[in-house]
Specification:
With 84 residues, this protein is mainly alpha-helical. Helix content is 67%, strand content 0%. The chain folds into two domains: 1-37; 39-84, no CATH class. The longest helix has 27 residues, at 5-31.
């Protein structure tokens, strides 16, 4: 049983698109070192409000919430460093 012409045409176009995407990805891989980049961290650190802190801690099981609260300043520093 042969496929209708329209189905074969769609399959043919899809294969051509897939090949084009593959070629583009390979080009990007081979030329990534040529990509100019300027990274600027643009965020303002605001203190966590009391209501937000309560909601955050209530999302953890009690034992985990105690550990998160005890390590809040360290977690904050690590999170900030990870986003720079």
């Amino acid at each position: 049983m042969s496929r209708p012409i329209s189905t074969a045409l769609v399959a043919s176009r899809r294969a051509a698109q897939d090949e084009g995407v593959r070629r583009a990805v390979l080009f990007q891989r081979d030329h990534f070192h040529e990509t100019p980049a300027l990274i600027i961290a643009c965020y303002r650190r605001r203190p966590l409000g009391p209501a937000t802190g309560r909601r955050l801690l209530s999302s953890f099981p009690p034992g985990d919430a105690v550990r998160v609260a005890a390590r809040a300043s360290r977690i904050s520093l690590l999170a900030e460093a990870a986003s720079v």
